[in-house]
Amino acid sequence: MKGLEQYKESAAQIRKLMTSVLIIFMLAVTVLVYLLIDPTLTAFSSETTDGDYETTSDITDEDYDKIEDGIHLRTGFVEGDGLMLVVNNCTNCHSAKLVTQNRMSKERWTATIRWMQETQNLWDLGGNEEPIINYLATHYAPTQKGRRQNLSNFEWYDLEE
Fold first, then answer.
1. Model-level pTM?
2. Chain centroid to CA 69
3. Nearest-angstrom CA–CA distance, 3 and 56
4. Under a CB-based contact definition with an 8 Å cutoff, are residues 78 and 67 in contact?
5. Do 56 and 109 form a contact (C-beta atoms < 8 A)?
6. Contact of 82 with 132, CB cutoff 8 Å
7. pLDDT digit string, tens, across residues 127-148
8. DSSP label at 80?
């Protein structure tokens, strides 16, 4: 009987130890996952550098439509005619980064807007459509990325064995 009591006591101690180890392990995994998601621990930091907006909640009313060095700070759009039309019509549904990462011709921007109207419930832009497309085609047109220039003024030499 004494052996059975001793066994139950040992089993209870092992169960407590395993529970403690499991809790510590789960806490460590939680911390590691958080560090993977936010390695700079920005959730615990209240300071931001001047002009460095982490989220739109960091932007004050006076900075909301501020343009610095030709860039609209809140969205990253290039300053130009039609900028605010694009901001007001495009960023209601998606991030400005979706626009800035694309490079399309006027025809492709028009086709993309038509596609959004047909499949994504984009409203009729009316008279705003032409200035929006002109802005996008001007500032986010395809760029020519070709090969580098041919080499010139070089001397060949023979490799020795």
1. 0.53
2. 21
3. 67
4. no
5. no
6. yes
7. 999 999 999 999 999 887 767 7
8. S
CA 74, distance to chain mean position in Å, is 13
Distance, in Å, from the CA atom of 84 to the CA atom of 115, rounded to the nearest integer, reads: 22
Q: How far is CA 151 from CA 78, 111, 144, 148, 159, in A?
A: 34, 40, 20, 9, 20
Residue spans per domain, the chain: 2-41, 56-139
Coil, strand, or helix at residue 16?
Answer: helix
- Decide: 39 and 29 in contact? Cβ < 8 Å: no
Q: What is the pLDDT of residues 64-102, one digit of tens each?
A: 788 888 888 888 899 999 999 999 999 888 989 999 888
Q: Is 78 helix (H, G, I), strand (E, B) or coil?
A: strand
